[in-house]
Amino acid sequence: MKQKQIVPTSKERIMREGDFIVSKTDLKGRITYGNRIFIEFSGYSEAELIGTQHNIIRHPDMPRAVFQLLWDTIEQGKEIFAYVKNMSKDGGFYWVFANVTPSYDKNGNMVGYYSVRRKPNPKAVAVVDGVYKAMLAEEQRAGAKDAIAKSTQILVDLLTEKGLSYEELIFALEAS
Fold first, then answer.
1. Which of 9, 25, 121, 135 is the most buried (most CB within 10 A)?
2. Does residue 149 sit within a domain?
């Protein structure tokens, strides 16, 4: 499906307590399953989502370096937690606290990815939004060739300054 250009708006949707957005993809990131909450928040029908790249909901405010970290981690067979700003079909946005893990078949072969997203801590979103804005600005300043490396360096510098690993930072923010 060829996606039309969606113009981001300032309309925010807030996840409800107890909501879980669930989706599954194949190894290439094509959606193979989405629960009713995913369909609701994305604004797409199930037919529009199935078989489409998961980045159909990628918000342009998200730094490329965050997705590089996500893909590098799950392709190594590890799970990752991250704050993600997604974009609905109508251009609105919604923040999630995402957990993405590889999925395996009965023989232990990786066959795709499974993601569960829930309502993030609003205090964490305020912090992460600022970090992501700095990362995105650096990506735009650096140009395509160096964008991810320069943006990643901002995150590395923050982790060094705080004396935390990525996971420790994410969970400290969620607990704040």
1. 135
2. yes
